[in-house]
Write a structure and sequence with these properties.
Elements (H helix, E strand, L loop, with lengths): L8 H15 L4 H27 L3 H4 L3 H4 L2
């Protein structure tokens, strides 16, 4: 039996693009708006994480999986 052909980056982006458009019922303006909103959310999360790390609180705020095992 043959191995499945791995998807190229372009294939993944095309599929993700099609999925995003489908989730917005084919409305391209709504799709772009949703992607901008998602990007802004991720930027905010990244800024909060960077602030936590630079303040030296990373260990307290984000315990490792090892710390959760009791």
């Amino acid at each position: 039996m043959s191995e499945p052909v791995p998807m190229t980056d372009n294939d993944r982006y095309e599929r993700a693009c099609s999925q995003a458009i489908a989730m917005c019922d084919g409305n391209l303006r709504s799709t772009i708006k949703a992607l901008i909103m998602a990007n802004e959310y991720l930027e905010t999360e990244l800024e909060a994480l960077q602030a936590t790390v630079s303040a030296g609180d990373a260990r307290r705020e984000f315990p490792s999986a090892r710390d959760k095992v009791a």
